[in-house]
């Protein structure tokens, strides 16, 4: 019987609601995030030593090699014109950026961000909590299943594997909204309000910098997100 491994599990809960010292004009989220990443382990030939034992139980072939990380996310809620509380792209990007800091696999960012925002907005919409203009202090605990690079990936030197031309053409443009954002290629500042080029992993760069970089390496300079190659 095949066994499936759940990649992620995210639990969120409200710890308290605080009154701000000064009027905020919006509801603010302060969330403590703890992420535990568990990585698989493969048996080497020496470890197996020719043993024909059936490792059908996934718990027998996966080592409990886990690393935990913790950080704080601060986020202002962005409401739409219809007074809805649907997650916006900006908030998704902010959460994804924090998940990168916590070493959460990129493939799980969207589902985790959806879970976090849905739970946060459920709290904010609850009239009994009267959270408008307050500070929501919440906590999220994430359990993610990481992926180790295979032997072929480990043998590849990224500088000899450029991204495909079609992948470069699909790069998006974005307006820099955060101050002190730096292009990790040239190490110079991306000026707030200016246009930058955004990779699928949401990291921003000067267009000329990232195009030149991806012409040599398909990997994001910051997180090693892999772009398609020919």
Automatic annotation (TrEMBL):
Top enzyme class: transferase
Entries under Pfam families matching the protein: zf-RING_2
UniProt name for this protein: RING-type E3 ubiquitin transferase
Catalytic activity: S-ubiquitinyl-[E2 ubiquitin-conjugating enzyme]-L-cysteine + [acceptor protein]-L-lysine = [E2 ubiquitin-conjugating enzyme]-L-cysteine + N(6)-ubiquitinyl-[acceptor protein]-L-lysine
Keyword Acyltransferase: yes
Residue span(s) of domain RING-type: 183-224
Keyword list, A-Z: Acyltransferase, Ligase, Metal-binding, Transferase, Zinc, Zinc-finger
Highest taxon, organism lineage: Eukaryota
GO molecular function: ligase activity; ubiquitin protein ligase activity; zinc ion binding
Keyword RNA-binding among record annotations: no
InterPro entries: Znf_RING (IPR001841), Znf_RING/FYVE/PHD (IPR013083)
Annotated EC: 2.3.2.27
